[in-house]
Write a structure and sequence with these properties.
Blueprint: E1 4-12, E2 24-25, E3 46-51, E4 71-73, E5 76-83, E6 86-93, E7 100-105, E8 113-116, E9 133-136, E10 139-142, E11 146-148, E12 151-156, E13 165-170, E14 175-176, H1 186-199, H2 207-210, E15 217-226, E16 231-237, E17 241-249, E18 261-267, E19 274-277, H3 278-281, E20 296-299, E21 302-305, E22 309-311, E23 315-321, E24 327-336, E25 346-354, E26 372-380
Parallel strand pairs: 2-14
Antiparallel strand pairs: 1-25, 1-26, 3-13, 4-5, 5-12, 6-10, 6-11, 6-13, 7-8, 7-12, 9-10, 15-24, 16-23, 17-21, 17-22, 17-24, 18-19, 18-23, 20-21
Length: about 375
């Protein structure tokens, strides 16, 4: 018997202006630590990836190097050639080398940045510090944003390379972006330090990053005794605001494969936006705590979630029992007095299961409509 499980979190229905209103200006490095901006609608015109995939539809996705470039030049392999304004948000590879990696911005004939491909991920270059770059879970990654006003060419001075991905976003001409420079200003260094501090905090309380600057935060703490088959209210709000943290403990109280304890969250009197087995919501695998990411997971005996969840008028968080046994637990809801802004979406979480899976048929993670963006997917199979 096979099992496929999907937990998808989405913000649906910015920091940018509405199209055509006025020039949109933003500083990409801030997006690495401004968790409060996650609900804001995005204004990118295109989000894409350049990678070493087999253009024939086969499985040569970097093995031979045949498809591991956009084009060949006398200077080496062009891995990406992008027209802006835009931002490279992520570079990934499991096969870095000692070959020089070059970044040419805005039509430059000489590269502005040259770094050994491997050193891009090891903190060896001051512009690409850890933990914004690093390695683990099967690959090397760099999340230092590389903005460009007009264009960016990424070139590797090598005869051959293998696997890579370069993820980027392009924006409208009204968007003002300052092209990346490795000699960061004091202001940029301060932003970068905040991002590094946050990214080192997986498992810690990062709710302060999820609340808008200046917002007043409060914590509601509740002891819950949940009889079989009943529902208990964890948190209720009757005016606009936002949830910036959820914590449930002890983690062992929600363990097991039965999935008979549900987390249910509703906003503004609508039908539940979140209805999922509580353990799966916090990243359990096969009924046990298994994840410790920045925004959601388990540390010690505490399950946590720091996705911001703004609402207009009201919110209701409930714990629902479908179990034959009573459960005693402790819950904390961290919230801020900042109602949902017009340019923000709402938080939704969808849980789907297919058991047994159907041979040869795709499994649908999420199918929805409306303006928004997907922020997380967890798969258990």
């Amino acid at each position: 018997m096979k099992l496929s499980l999907c937990f998808a979190a989405a913000l649906l229905t910015g920091w940018f202006s509405e199209a055509g209103a006025h020039a949109a200006i933003f500083n990409p490095i801030e997006e690495l630590y401004r968790l409060d901006r996650l609900p804001a609608f995005k204004a990118s015109a295109k989000v894409g990836s350049v990678s070493s995939y087999d253009r024939s539809g086969g499985n040569d996705d970097g093995f031979s190097g045949r498809y591991s470039f956009v084009r060949k030049e006398p200077e080496g392999l062009v891995l990406a050639d992008l027209k802006g304004p835009g931002v490279i948000w992520r570079i990934w590879t499991p096969t870095p080398s000692e070959d020089p990696l070059e970044f040419l911005f805005d039509g430059e004939s000489q590269p502005r940045v040259v770094v050994k491909f491997r050193d891009l991920f090891l903190g060896a270059h001051p512009a690409f510090p850890r933990p914004l770059s690093g390695f683990g879970a099967g690959g090397y990654y760099c999340y230092v944003p590389l903005p460009f006003a007009k264009s960016c060419v990424v070139r590797l001075r090598a005869a051959k390379t293998q696997f890579y991905q370069i993820n980027y976003a392009l924006y409208g001409e009204e968007t003002s972006l300052a092209t990346f420079t490795p000699e960061a200003s004091a202001e940029q260094l301060a932003h970068r330090q905040k991002a590094c501090d946050l990214w080192r905090s997986a498992g810690a309380d990062v709710s302060r990053f999820a609340a808008p600057p200046g917002a007043r935060m409060q914590t509601v703490s509740t002891r819950i005794s949940l009889p079989p088959g009943e529902t208990r209210t964890v948190y209720r709000a009757d005016r606009g605001g936002r949830i910036v943290g959820l914590r449930f403990s002890p983690a062992e109280a929600f363990a097991g494969k039965a999935r008979d304890l549900l987390l249910r969250i509703s906003f503004d009197g609508d039908k539940p936006a979140v209805c999922a087995p509580l353990g799966d919501f916090f990243g359990y695998a096969w009924g046990q705590p298994a994840m410790q990411s920045l925004l959601v997971g388990t540390t010690g005996q505490t399950n946590y979630c720091y996705f911001p969840m703004p609402f207009d008028r009201s919110a209701l968080v409930e714990l629902v029992s479908e179990s034959a046994a009573a459960v005693d637990c402790h819950a904390e809801v961290l919230h801020a007095d900042a109602p949902r802004a017009p340019e923000e979406g709402r938080f939704y979480a969808l849980w789907r299961r297919e058991n047994p899976t159907r041979l040869g048929e795709p499994f649908t993670f999420i199918e929805t409509q409306g303006r928004g963006h997907l922020v997380a997917v967890a798969l258990q199979a």
